[in-house]
Amino acid sequence: MFVITSHVPANQQEFMAHTKKMSEILSQEPGFIELLVGRSPDKPDTLLVVQKWDSIGNARRAINSGKNRMDVWPVMSSAKDEPTMFETLFEFKDGFGTDFESVLNQN
């Protein structure tokens, strides 16, 4: 699963410093896979932060953890108010496609 947040920080250099600190902290949490930051060439003031996790539960626990709050809040507080967590339904990697069962289909 992945978490995608869109940001328009007032100071991109400061935002990147906070994001790097957040990635160090979250990388110590169970289920963390990776964190990417990207900039739109069409709208360079907009940055995306993409986090990859092994499950929605691990992502939510890590991001909302009280012990991580001081390092996560400076980044996540500037995220646009829109859906951010997405489950992986299909992945094409290393020449192979894989379909994943939605957790929404599980009763």
TrEMBL record:
The ABM domain extends over 9-56
What the entry lists under InterPro entries is as follows: ABM_dom, Dimeric_a/b-barrel
UniProt cross-references to Pfam families, sorted A to Z: ABM (PF03992)
Q: What is this protein called?
A: Unannotated protein
